[in-house]
Structure formats: C-alpha cells, structure tokens
Design brief:
The complex is a heterodimer of chains A (358) and B (272).
Chain A: H1 13-16, H2 23-38, H3 40-43, H4 46-72, H5 80-97, H6 103-122, H7 130-150, E1 163-164, E2 169-170, E3 173-174, H8 182-205, H9 207-217, H10 219-224, H11 229-256, E4 258-259, H12 261-264, H13 267-280, H14 285-309, H15 314-335, H16 339-353
Antiparallel strand pairs in A: 1-4, 2-3
Helix pairs in contact in A: 4-8, 4-9, 4-11, 4-13, 4-14, 5-6, 5-7, 5-11, 6-11, 8-9, 8-11, 9-11, 13-14, 13-16, 14-15, 14-16
Chain B: E1 8-9, E2 15-16, E3 19-30, E4 33-44, E5 48-52, H1 59-66, E6 74-79, E7 82-83, H2 89-95, E8 97-100, H3 112-118, H4 128-133, H5 136-155, H6 171-184, E9 189-193, H7 201-218, E10 221-225, H8 229-235, E11 238-243, E12 246-251, H9 253-257, H10 260-267
Helix pairs in contact in B: 3-6
Classes of the chains: A mainly alpha (358), B alpha/beta (272).
C-alpha cells in the first residue's frame, strides 16, 4: 500500500537513476543509517561488537569487493584470503613505518597497494576464463600466504611470526590496539562500509559497471561495442582488490589486533567470502550485505540457541553448528539459486502490488 | 585508391556519397579452408548494401572481417579513405562501426536501458575516480548520454520496456533492442547480420521500416546480410552475391536478379 512507485515521478535523468527509486525504500534506508550511526554506538558492548557487528561490517566490505569481480565482471576468484592478507600486511608495515600518519590513510593506502597486487594476479584473466582462472587465483592465495609466512621483512622479524597492531587514534580516540572501546571499533568500520558501499554503487551504475557486466554476460558482444576487455577486467581486479585490501586491513588492525597469516587469511577465508556472495546474490550490493550477515549471524545465532537455549555441551554444539550451516546453505541454494538479493527483489515486486494484485 | 565516384541520387531521392569502406582482394583462410577468396567490393556513404548468398558462402565471415574478429591473410580494408591497420574489435567499434549478430548477443543480466547505454561506451570518457565519487563530470556525462539513448528508444518505439531485464523479452523485441544498442553508438557504418532471421511477416515489416528510417533520418550507411530475398530486393541499393567464398555478382537488385551465375547458385545448374 505504501510501497509503490505511483505518484512518485522522476523529472530528471539523475532522479531516474537513483539508488532507491521508491520513496518507502529511501526512508527505510535513512532509518537504517540513523539507527546505525545514532543508536547502535551508544548501546553496543564488547560481545556484540566482536561477535556480530564488526565482523559483519568487515565481511560486507570484502563481499562487496569480491562481488564486483565475480558478480559484476564474471571473473571467479579464490584469492580473497590472500588479498586480505596483502591489505593486512600493507597496513601493518605502514603503521609501523609511519606511526604519525593517520590510520585512516594507512587503511586507504593498503587498499591501493592491494589493488596493485590484484591487477598483477588479474593478468592471467585476459587469457583464461572460468574454472581455470579460479585455479590461477588459487595460486595467488597460496603464494601470498607463503610469502607473508616466510619473508621476515613483512612481519618485522618478530619472534612469533605474528603481526600485531599498535595503538592508533582517530580524533584522539583509540581505534586499534588493546585499549580500543567497542563503539570505536564499530564506528570506524561503519564509516568505511558506508563510504565504500556508496562508491561501489556509483561504479556499478555508471559506465564502468556496464563494461563489467557486458564482459560478464557476453564478452564477444562487449568487445564489438567498444569495451576493451583488458581494461575492463583489470579495473575490476583493481577495484575489487581495493575493497578486499581495506577489509583485510580493518580485519587485522581493528577487529583482531594480532594476526597469524596462515590461520586468519587461509583458503577458508576465500571460500567464506565466496559463499557470502553466492548466498547473498551475485551482482548485487545488497546481496553482499545480506550474505555477510547470513554467514556471520547464523553461527552466532545457532550457538546461542544450542548452548545458551538448550544447554548442550559446547563441543557438540560447535560440530552441529557446522553441519546445520552447511545444510542450510545447500537447502537455500536449491530453493533460491540467485541468492538472498533475488528473494528480496521478488518480495519487493509482490509488495508493490499488495494488497490489490489486480 | 581509385577515384571517388560522384554523389548520385537513388530513385527514391536519397543521396549516395563517396566510398566509405572498401574491401580490396580479401582472402580469409581457416587452416586449409578458404572461407573468402579474393573478394573486393565497396560500400558507399549513405547506401544500404546487402550481402547475400547460400548458406556457408562466407557472408558472416566477411562481416567478421569488417568488424575485426577475423584478420584476413591477404587483402586490405580501407575505411574513410585510409587503409585500416589490423585492429581488435573494440578498436573497430571506436572507428564508428557498429553491428548486430545473427544470434542475438545482448547482455541478458542487464535491463534494456543498460544494454542500450553500453552502446554509448565509446563516447564516455570520464575516469575511474570521477565515476567512483559520482562527481559532476561523470554524472553530467551519464545524463547527456542518457538523453541520446532516450532518443534511440523513442525512435525504435521501445519506451515501455525500458527497465525490463532483456532476458524476459520476446525474440522480436530482443532484435530491436540489439539494433537500438548498435544505433546508440551513432555509427558511421552499421552492420546487420540477418536482422530478420526467425521473424514473422509483421515483425519483418517493422524491422524493414526501422532499417529504412535509420538510413533515411540519420544517414547511416548500412551493410546487411539477409536470406529473405523479398526484403533484400526491396531495401538495398546494391547487392553483393557470394557463393563458396567467391563473389559471383555485384550490382543493383535488378541487375543481380538477372545475373546468370546468381540464378545458378540459388536454383542449381541443370545437368544435361
């Protein structure tokens, strides 16, 4: 009834290409932003920040990044974990080398460094496609993890081989290091997420996004209308790696504080982010958020229900949790192969006609 | 290059200009198979040029040579009075040559509007960072190109399906959207590979009208491949006939129709 386009006219092409064409959606979006910025920071505690919100926000960035490459440009990548590691180690090196420079700048620079590395490993995509490209990016994953494990320069020759984030502040509020408060962690991630989501949306609705999607849907036709496949694929790799690198930097500096590369940025991480975009919906910004939320929240929810609610032993619950999550993913993909974003789209189409479908 | 013929007028009063594209002694081989054997012909500005021939005659290969998918072993392609170096398809597109495909080659995951907007990509210049921040330049460019695209949408009468995903459209409309995408590029030369294949009479009439209108209103030069002889004879100013990779006829529809070699190729030769 309230959810409709009728009576909401676009008089310029700018208005016609806006992100939320329906008024109700726009207000809903503003309300979500207002809650995220105005309410959650004041009530968040350590448990909610470290179990739910911070990982959700960081994975949302990584998922957006991979979605740009895989969902929008059609290039499968299994190197997400490796690229996150590049972001993390770049951030660590920058933080320790230039302690006086703002952490925000470090995180951004880590993104750019990762973008460069991503372009390098994206070069094979010009020759190979599909599964073969996935295997090539897998090589990147293993190589990068090996590199950060073996070359002492990357972890400043620390005895443990780990990297740990020193304390850094934004507006003299610590955002990294052990003294960081829950809300500060949350806020810095939130700001990055909002800005990057806006950038992702801008890129995918404009000329560049169309080039990516054209390459994804039919590369021959894309070439015939003037898309340079080399440029399109490499920009996708660059932008995607930029996002993933920032996610890696935040994951290390803000979320974990200390990282051992093989454990944190291994192949499991690559698959986790890939699952997020498949479950959330390929080629959708909203899908990246939905997928990240699904895979971050579901284990937390199950643990709370099984251990907290039913009183099962923790180890039994932990194993069952894996089985249930796996089962749900399969059920879900059979029921809706296009992901949560598609469910959302269908729901919105239905809602548009409700309650008078004729 | 041979001297340019003086502009002439067609019987229906359209102006045909000088030579826009010239194929000189093109030979294309795939391994031992000669798909095109030493073919030369020209396309003049403003005309509708048809390439016909039985199946496997090498018509589509010829179109692929023009649009840069295939690189002929011998021969030269001249475009706008200069020899064209060996080019990738996207570079050819930037020269102002657009095309449609025999089997529709649209981007199924995108809306009709986005599909047609891709046709404007050769005209869009704003950089990565401008687009990322949706700054003035990028946004203005988007709107300007959108206006051009809307004109094409109006022209081809597909306003009602603007926001529909292409995958949901029926065949005839898809063909029209593909034409729209090619037109949006404002090409100097438009290549149509079997624009009426698989259409019913009504859709063919629509498509014919659009082709004539495009040629008439925008002055676009058109080269088309088509099997429907009625359509070819009605639409085209000049016809090239190919058979087994060789050119067997070239001229106005009337000339071609009375050409002995052409009749033999289509109807077969009596063995007595």
């Amino acid at each position: 009834m309230f959810y409709r386009e009728a009576g909401d006219f676009s008089t310029t092409y700018q208005q016609d290409s806006q992100t939320f064409p329906i008024k109700f959606d726009r207000y809903r979006y503003y309300i979500v932003l207002a809650v995220a910025f105005g309410i959650i920071p004041f009530i968040i505690n350590d448990y909610w920040a470290s179990a739910v919100f911070v990982p959700f926000l960081i994975y949302a960035i990584a998922a957006m990044g991979l979605n740009i490459l895989t969902g929008y440009c059609g290039q499968v990548s299994l190197g997400t974990g490796g690229f996150m590691a590049v972001g993390a180690y770049a951030c660590y090196k920058l933080m320790t080398a230039f302690p006086d420079v703002s952490i925000v700048l470090h995180v951004l620079l880590s993104g750019f460094i990762t973008a460069g590395v991503g372009v390098l490993f994206g070069l094979p995509s010009l020759r190979i496609k599909g599964f073969y490209l996935a295997v090539a990016t897998l090589a990147a994953q293993f190589f990068l993890v090996w590199l950060f494990n073996r070359v002492g320069w990357f972890y400043n020759y620390s005895a443990s081989g780990q990297i740990s984030a020193p304390e850094r502040t934004v507006f003299s509020i610590p955002v990294t290091g052990p003294n960081t408060e829950a809300w500060a962690k949350y806020m810095i991630c939130l700001v990055f997420v909002v800005v990057l989501a806006w950038v992702a949306r801008n890129l995918t609705r404009g000329a560049l996004g169309r080039q990516w999607m054209a390459i994804r849907d039919m590369d021959i036709a894309a070439e015939i209308i003037g898309v340079n496949p080399l440029k399109a694929k490499l920009t996708a790799f660059a932008v995607s790696s930029f996002f993933v690198g920032i996610a890696g930097a935040l994951f290390f500096a803000v979320y974990l504080g200390a990282v051992e590369v093989g454990e944190v940025f291994g192949i499991q991480k690559s698959f986790l982010v890939l699952f997020m975009i498949i479950i959330g919906g390929l080629g959708s910004i909203f899908g990246s958020f939905a997928g990240a939320a699904f895979l971050v929240l579901l284990p937390v929810l199950l643990k709370n229900v099984l251990v907290g609610g039913l009183g099962w032993p923790t180890d039994l619950a932990a194993h069952l949790e894996l089985m249930i999550v796996g089962g749900l993913i399969i059920t879900f993909l059979i029921a809706e192969p296009h992901g949560l974003a598609q469910l959302w789209r269908v729901a919105k189409e239905k809602l548009r006609l409700w309650p008078f479908p004729h | 290059m041979k001297d340019t013929p003086a502009p002439t007028l067609t019987p229906d009063g359209r102006k045909i200009g000088g030579v826009l594209m010239e194929m000189k002694n093109i030979t294309l081989r795939f391994g031992g198979v000669e798909a095109i054997k030493d073919i030369s012909f020209d396309i003049r500005e403003g005309e509708i040029r048809a390439i016909i021939g039985p199946n496997g005659a090498g018509k589509s290969s010829m179109l692929n040579v023009i649009s840069g998918f295939y690189h002929p072993q011998e021969g030269e392609v001249w475009f706008r009075g200069a020899k064209r170096p060996s080019m990738k398809p996207y570079q050819v597109a930037r020269l102002g040559i657009a095309r449609t495909f025999q089997n529709i080659a649209l981007f199924d995951g995108m809306s009709v509007l986005d599909n047609i907007m891709t046709g404007r990509l050769t005209h869009m210049k704003s950089g990565l960072f401008g687009q990322a921040l949706w700054w003035g330049g990028a946004q203005r460019e988007e709107v300007e190109n959108r206006e051009k695209v809307e004109r094409v949408i109006d022209f081809l009468e597909i306003q009602h399906i603007r926001k529909t995903p292409v995958g949901r459209l029926p065949y005839g409309l898809k063909k029209r959207v593909e034409l729209a995408r090619a037109l949006a590029a404002e090409p100097k030369l438009l290549l149509l590979d079997e624009p009426m294949a698989g259409m019913n009479v009504e859709e063919k009439e629509d498509m014919s009208r659009f082709i004539l209108d495009v040629n008439d209103e925008f002055g676009t030069t058109i080269a088309l491949i088509e099997h429907d002889m009625g359509v070819v004879m009605d639409l085209s100013d000049r016809v090239v006939v190919m058979d087994y990779g060789k050119k067997i006829g070239d001229g106005t529809p009337t000339e071609v129709r009375s050409n002995k070699a052409v009749i033999d190729a289509y109807l077969g030769v009596a063995h007595d």
